[in-house]
Design goal:
The chain is α+β, with helices and mostly antiparallel strands and 553 residues long. It folds into 4 domains: 64 residues, Phenylalanyl-tRNA Synthetase, Chain B, domain 1, CATH 3.30.56.10; 191 residues, Phenylalanyl-trna Synthetase, Chain B, domain 3 (Phenylalanyl-tRNA Synthetase, Chain B, domain 3, 3-Layer(bba) Sandwich), CATH 3.50.40; 70 residues, 2-Layer Sandwich (Phenylalanyl-tRNA Synthetase, Chain B, domain 1); 189 residues, BirA Bifunctional Protein, domain 2. Helices cover 27% and strands 29% of the residues. The chain is built from 15 helices and 30 strands. Strands 21, 24, 25, 26, 27, 28, 29 and 30 form an 8-stranded mixed beta sheet that branches. It has a 7-stranded mixed beta sheet with strand order 13-12-11-8-5-16-17, with no helix packed on it. Strands 4-15-6-14-7 form a 5-stranded mixed beta sheet. β11 and β12 form a beta hairpin. α1 packs across α3, α8 packs across α10 and α9 crosses α10. The radius of gyration is 29 Å and the shape is globular. The relative contact order is 0.09. The mean pLDDT is 92.
Length: 553
């Protein structure tokens, strides 16, 4: 989850108050989690669906509403300018859309520059899908000569990239710079690359890779040109709305830009409010409240949303930067926030029966308690993991792998059929922590049997330190089975690509089955582990559940 640092002196200035404690106290009721509180600042975590919270300006804007200092939809004026952006037809097949604005009169101290850059990167990762969908360029406008031209060039075209001193070809930028190596995959498949230049041929940026050194921001910069290139026009306009409203709150003037395409023109940014309505009865039913129309309007005003109440309906105007409000039910949450989440009283739903723990969950809880009593630390990993973690590092074949179609990340591509690999990954990310390290996990695994996929609960344990061995793992297994299930462990020698030959065994007892052994040195090396490690994994499922496999390969 993204985190933003808020300095108390800036927050006091933005809120125009000396009572900083009242502000901090209300942060969690905006959906912000306090990660760290220091003498001069506080670090808060925000949900990625609220990118307007990526700076202290956006947080202060929402806080003013919640505290009643400013209510309703903030008003932003877009001033008409003569700024022109010409779009060459050659970008159509590469990165077809661009939106822009001219920001005048901004004061960029070091912290404001840091926050703008941090917001830019957060937007790249959220709306921008790691720059593939949307990328942002922020430039010193005063060194440019409009009109701005969005076009393409061959990979041999040269300019000085941001932070450089010598010109590099666009191909060299992709091959030799860290940012080019990280994001080059987005454009490298095309014969020509997108580029932004001014009327003198000066390079602004090579989107979505890097800006030119010419337009670097400094504390002396007062006027900004912002370009947002994208494969989706709405996503670009959403991003621009968040950026411009934030910069307006920072004290700057927003100016329009006219974007000339071959088939027409658009003027950006468009900060007009969006409209949505919902029945008051539905709001009250979902929240368990009995608000009047006027009270609901007041609650929405505290969430910085304009509303009127007519004939049982709440009709709202939503600020353009609130891109997270997509459905009328989203307004219910805004009413709750404006009402005060701390004022809501939890109640139990009426029922004629009394709930109780499922027997299988009681059994899993007992196993968990025994593991903790044995000195093991519980971890909880995601069911989806990478091919390297689950197969490559373990020298396992992926022939029966359950792979998610069109995964958004290579780190969350395969459903786990065993738990030990992700426990080894946990050890890998904690190699600098004190030893011994002894971990366990109880979670569902997913098994392919023919064309069907089944869920099974497994328990897995790893122990890693200078003297970790099969004997230690076996003693932990014996204690676990005896104390939680009241049975004695039975094993027989086995061969498994994960374990050292001759120090591996198969576990079988009634319906239970599993594997135990010392991890191979080759596997330890693949996970960058420095200590001997032993592990076991046991199927503790009493009931195997079939799941629909239409969403998996």
């Amino acid at each position: 989850m993204p985190v933003v640092t808020v300095y108390y002196d800036r927050l006091r200035r933005l809120m125009n108050t000396s009572d900083i404690e009242a502000c901090i106290e209300r942060l969690p009721y905006l959906g912000l989690d306090i990660e760290e509180r220091a003498q001069d600042y506080i670090r808060v975590e925000y949900n990625p669906n609220r990118p307007d919270f990526s700076t202290d300006y956006g947080i202060a804007r929402a806080l003013k509403g919640l505290l009643g200092l400013e209510k309703g939809c903030p008003r932003y004026t877009v001033h008409k300018s003569n700024l022109l952006v010409q779009v060459d037809p050659s970008v159509k097949d590469v990165r077809p859309y661009i939106v822009s604005t001219l920001i005048e009169g901004i004061t960029l101290d070091d912290e404001t520059i840091r926050q703008i850059i941090a917001m830019q990167e957060d937007l790249h990762h959220t709306i921008g899908r790691r720059r593939a969908k949307v990328s942002i360029g922020i430039h010193n406008f005063d060194v440019l000569q409009p009109p701005i031209i969005y076009t393409t060039e061959t990979p041999e075209f040269r300019f000085i990239p941001l932070g450089g001193v010598e010109p590099l070809s666009m191909k060299e930028i992709l091959e030799k710079t860290s940012v080019g190596q990280k994001y080059g995959w987005i454009v490298s498949k095309y014969p020509r690359y997108p580029i932004l230049i001014d009327s003198l041929g000066q390079v602004l940026s090579f989107p979505p890779i890097i800006n030119g050194e010419l337009t670097r921001l400094t504390p002396a910069t007062r006027n900004l040109f912002i370009d947002i290139t994208a494969t989706d026009l709405k996503a670009a306009e959403d991003t621009l709305a968040i950026l411009t409203t934030t910069l307006a709150d920072a004290g700057s003037k927003i100016n329009s830009a006219e974007i000339h395409y071959t088939d027409g023109s658009i003027v950006t940014p468009n900060l007009a409010e969006t409209e949505m309505k919902i029945e008051l009865r539905r709001v009250n039913r979902l929240l368990g409240l009995k608000l009047s129309g006027e009270e609901a309007v007041e609650c929405l005003a505290r969430s910085r949303i304009d509303a009127t109440y007519t004939n049982s309906w709440l009709k709202t105007k939503i600020p353009r930067y609130r891109i997270d409000l997509m459905h009328p039910v989203d307004l219910v949450e805004e009413v709750a926030i404006g009402y005060g989440l701390d004022r809501l009283t939890p109640t139990l739903p009426p029922s004629t029966s009394v709930g109780r723990a499922h027997p299988e969950l009681k059994r899993l809880s007992l196993i968990r308690e025994v593991c903790v009593g044995l000195g093991l630390t519980e971890v909880m990993n995601l069911s989806l993991t990478s091919e390297a973690t689950l197969y490559t590092n373990l020298q396992r074949e992926a022939s029966s792998a359950i792979k998610v179609e069109e995964p958004k990340s290579g780190e969350h591509e395969y459903l786990r059929d065993m738990l030990i690999p992700t426990l080894l990954s946990n050890l890998s990310t904690n190699i600098h922590e004190p030893y011994p390290q002894k971990l366990f996990e109880i979670a569902k695994t997913f098994q392919r049997r023919g064309e069907e996929i089944y869920e099974e609960y497994h328990v897995a344990v790893v122990t890693s330190h200078s003297e970790a061995n099969y004997t230690e793992a076996k003693s932990l297994l014996d204690a676990l089975l005896q104390q939680s299930l009241g049975i004695k462990c039975e094993t027989k020698p086995a061969v498994n690509p994960l374990f050292v030959e001759g120090r591996c065994a198969e576990i079988r007892k009634d319906n239970l089955k599993g594997v135990i052994g010392e991890i191979k040195p080759e596997v330890l090396q693949a996970f960058h582990l420095r200590m001997p490690t032993a592990a076991f994994e046991l199927n503790i499922n009493q009931n195997t559940h079939h799941i629909n496999n239409n969403t998996h390969k």
